[in-house]
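May I ask for an example protein's residues together with how it folds?

___
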Amino acid sequence: MSNQKDREQRRGERLEAEAEAARRHRLLQLSVGGVFLAVIVVVVIIVVAGSGGSKGGDGSNLVEKHDVEKLLAGIPQNATVLGKKSAPVKLYEYGDLQCSACKYFSEEVLPEVIENQVKTGKASITFRNFVIIGPDSVPAGESALAAGAQGMGWTYIETWYRNQGGENSGYVTEEFIESMANYVGIPDVAKFMQEWKSHKYKKQVETTTGQAEKFGFSATPSFAVEGPHSEGFELLGTPQSSEAIEEAIEKAS
């Protein structure tokens, strides 16, 4: 009975994440058309409606570090790249640490890809910031890059998603960032905090966000793949399942 309830809860979360991604897609389409005022109004409505009752975002009650460590055990990490340098296929995720759909992908879609494709050396996956949720997405993204500089980018990102607060709810504070760094075990937290506060990685966050926009991505997370048999840097958009991502990797191999 408990398993059934868990499945039903995950299904509800998936549907909610998909609906949020669809709403965000429509909003970005409106902004491209120049209806900026309407976009701002609708965004405010969504934020107010979606921020209530959200779990997570509590630096004093962080969870699931050991689950993340188990998922990523034995896989090399370099900056925000997960997987072997020799992996023939490169998968790229453009995401926003505040994004609820990204959280869903982190917990329900990517684990299978990591187990089947990344751990086996078939593919690596690179996280790139695509900040579209709100101003707090920038410092959140900067903190992921600071963690990556110490070889713990994916450990930090995956743990963040499992402790994510409500979008634009104000939980991305210095206290939360430092608690996250201590919780995941960043080797030099003082250096991590110094780099984060200095905005050392802000330009990189802006650059990868600009890349995603040039590609025409309109939602987070969005993916791309590159391999021996892909059509160059091949855009995947937002696949609906781990199977779709794995199929793209196999085709690119």
Remarks:
- The longest strand covers residues 89-95.
